[in-house]
Amino acid sequence: MHEMLSERIRRLRLARKLTQKQLAERMGASHYLTIGQWENGRRMPSSSLVSELARALGVSTDYLLHGRDGALLAALKAQIKQRAPYERLLAMVRDNV
After folding, report:
1. What is the pTM of this model?
2. Domain identity same for 77 and 96
3. Which helix (H) or strand (E) holds 93?
4. CA angle at residue 45 from 55 to 21, to 5 degrees?
């Protein structure tokens, strides 16, 4: 099951033990109620706020938006390709991306 952006925002915020207000403050935003709307799926963060939100949560924008870090997966695939015995693992990673 794929995690929705709203669920990911909430999970990341809670994992960092931040309130919605604290997250808004980290982003330099004054309206913390917007964070609640993002987490409830009533609104989505604008493209201009996605990078600020990712920074405030300590993740990449790839991870925030898609639940995976594209640069990390690319590096992992490159390492795996260099090791022929791990072709099966590479296929599993490729199938899950």
Report:
1. 0.68
2. yes
3. helix 87-95
4. 65
**3-35: pLDDT as tens digits:** 789 999 999 999 999 999 999 999 987 778 889
Tokens of 69: 């870090």
CATH code for position 50:
1.10.260.40
Count of structural domains, the chain:
2
State the average pLDDT over residues 48-62. 90
Helix or strand (DSSP H, E) at 78: helix 70-81
